[in-house]
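Researcher: I'm comparing several assemblies side by side, and this is the next one on my list. It has 457 residues spread over two chains. Same procedure as the others: predict the full complex and return the structure.
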Amino acid sequence: MIALALPAATTEEGFVAPTIEDTHYRDILPWGGEYGVLLDPGFGKQMLLTILSVVLIATFFLIASRRRQLVPGKVQFLGEAAYGFVRNSIGKDIIGGRDFLKYVPWLFTAFFFVLVNNIFGAVPFLQLPTFSHPGSAYGIAAIFFLLWVGIGLKKHGIRYFKLAVVPSGVPWYILLIVVPIEIISNFIVRPVTHSLRLFATMLAGHLIVTLAGSAIEYMMMTGNILLQGTSVLVLVGSVAMYMLEALIMILQAYVFTLLAAIYIEGALHADAH
Amino acid sequence: MLNAAIMAAEEGSNPLIPNLWELLVTVVGFAVLLFIVFKYVMPAFEKTFAERTEAIEGGIAKAEAAQAEANAALDEYKQQLVDARTEANRIREEARAEGAQILADLKEKAAAESARITEQAHVQIEAERQAAVVSLRAEVGTLATDLASRIVGESLADDARSSRVIDRFLADLETSSQSAGAAK
């Protein structure tokens, strides 16, 4: 904190690290809601990108699934491969059973919604992973929290809460410790980590790329030949970070969907755990 | 911690506080997408998958049926081939037997024919011999009479005597020829 605060105190000379507000290129397009303000009715880049992602995903998959042919064309094949990936390697493998198909649309939507929104962060000029804003991450995690709690209640009734927090075959004096831990772990830590994992990785990755960018700009502007030379190293490093960030964007979409599937499976088979 | 909270408040940028409008847009966007997937995308893909599975399984069943049919036809052809071979062997055997029969018949016929010809020749020879004997008998009588009359002269012109002499001579001749035939 102090290290970060220092450059700000000496603004006249030296490098000013970009803050979180600077990561969104407000100059290019205002992104509406101010950071950390609960109710700011501004409409801007982040919301626009969210809507854009919905339009893109819906358009692509409607086109891919419209012409149902036994021997698929390129677009249909791509759509089927994408759908089949979520359906089989996440839905079927994790949830399994006869009725995993009911939950495939939830997982499918989550995967591509998160994936496309993350990849926006790697697209030049867009450059904003929408889940780097906590509101979006809380929202989508809340949807799945309500979904799996709802599934548990529907399947097991009110007994679900007992099944979820009281492990069978444990003596009562250990239950005194285990039950609070299970309550905290299942109903508080789970949704919080589900959202924060996505949000924090997106924000951190984005911040690193922004930091590298502004550092290169600063070094080039100093007129000092040694600093200008060093900026090449920063450039190389920032490209590597950019690649890593792109990988994390895809990975986080997968992890989010995988965890959602695991939570749904846990709620469905709460009596077996 | 307190320091951080104060700083966040000053800068208005605690990154953990959500903007509720963004939350709303995200939830609504997700809901819209979910609706589209439930209503259009998933049924279409699932239907395609089901149709494809059915087509592949149907194709396999059809191929199996064709294979079975081909096998049956092959068996039938093999059976027919075996039958045809047996038939050919049988015909060949028959032909061989028939040929042998014909040959034997021909031989027999030839033998009969040669026997018949030989018999005929014997009969003819016998008949000719008889004719020769008859003509000789008549001629010998005349020749002998001629010879005797030349030798004896006028004395032997008496009919009665000459007739007795000839009869005795012929009887002698006959007995000698019969004894010769019996000896033969």
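Model: For your comparison table: Confidence is low (pLDDT under 50) at residues 1-10 of chain B.
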